[in-house]
User: What shape does this take?
Amino acid sequence: MIDLRSKILNIAAGMLIGALLCVSLYKIPQAVGADWEKSLPFTPQQLAIMKQVKLALSTYQVDGDKKGKVDDMKMYYGALKGLVESLDDPYTRFVEPKALEEENMEMEGEYGGLGIYMASRDGRTIVIAPIEDTPADRAGIKPLDEIIKVDDKNVMGMDSDEVVKMLRGPAGKPVTIQIRRKNVDKLIPVKIVREIIKIKTVRMEMLNDGIAYIKLNHFNLKTDGELRAAIKKAADKKAKGIIMDLRNNPGGLLDVCVDVTSQFIPKGVVVGMKGRFDKANDTLYAKEGRANNLPLVVIVNEGSASAAEIFAGAVKDHKRGTIVGMKTFGKGSVQTLFNLPDGSGIYVTIARYHTPSGFVLDHKGLQPDIKVEGEPKKDKKEDKQLQKALGVLKQKIKEKK
Assistant: This one.
C-alpha cells in the first residue's frame, strides 16, 4: 500500500472531471481458493438474478439481435458503474480504462477538448471553471454555469463522465452547448471549436510599484516548478509584494498543493483530513525552508475549488496574507484511486479536508477576508477584484517599510 500523503489527490470539483486529482495505487484483495464464495459481495441468489436479467435482455429485448447491441463488456462496466453511483456521491465514481488513460494525460498538462472543469451537483452538470485562454474561456463560459444540452442532446441527470465524452472530440470540430446562467431567463447557446488543450499552470507579470502578479490556473505535476521559477523571476525584478490569483482554479494534486503552499508558509499545518481509517486521518505540514516573506494577497472566486481552497484556507488561517474576492466553490473532499486489474478504476471519497483552524470547506466554501464582487477582466483597470487586491497589497508594503 502506497503512502496516501504523497498520492492522494483532490478532485476539482469534480471533474475534471475536467480535472483530476487523484492517484493512489491500491490492490483490492481478490478471492482465491475455496473461500471465494465467502468473499463475494452478493448472495448466490442475487448473482443468479443478475444473470437472469442479462439473459432476458439478450433474448427478448426488441433490438437484442442487432450486432453490438448486447455487449457483455458494456453490461459489465454498467454494473460496476451502478454499484458506485448507488452511494450518491458525485466524486466517488467508476472510470473505464480509456477514460482513465485520458484523465491521467490531463494531469500531465495536455489533452483535447474545450478547457472546462466540471462537477456534478444534484444531478446537474456545473462548470467549476474554464481554463484560462482555452476555447471555453474565450467563448465566455463562467463558473457555476449549468450545462443543459450538448449538440441538442439534453444532459440533465446524465453522469459527468458521459458529458465529458460528448464534449471531447477531434481538434477543429465544433460543438454547441446550451447553458443556464444565474439571473438569465433563457438558455444561452455557445458554439465552441475543440482544440488540443495545453495547460500552463503559472503565469507571472510585474505590475507597477514592484508588484508581482501571479495567475495560478491549476495544481498539476508542473505547477510547483513553474511557481518557483515565477517567484525567482519576481525576486530578480525586485518585487515588493505578490498577488496570487486563484480565480477559476479548480484544484489539482494534493501533494503539489502542499509544495506550493510551502513557498509562502514557513511551517505549520497546511491541511487536515478526516476519514474512516487511519491513513485518511492525516495532517499535512508545510515543508520548512522554502517560504518567501513578501507581502501577499490572494484573489478567489466561485470557481476556486479543492486544492485552491486548501491554499487560500492555509494562507488565511496562518495570517500569511489577505484573501480578496468571493466565496469559493466548496469542494472539500479527498479521493483516492483504486486501480482495477483490467485498467479501469474507481475514485473513492475517503475523507473530508479542513483548514488549519478546523473549518470543513465541503459544500460551504471559504469566505474571503474582503468580499468584492466581479470577475476576471483582460483590462486590469476594469477588474474590480484585482484593483482591490492591489490596494490592499500596496498598504501592506507601505506598513512593512
About this structure: The longest strand covers residues 345-354.
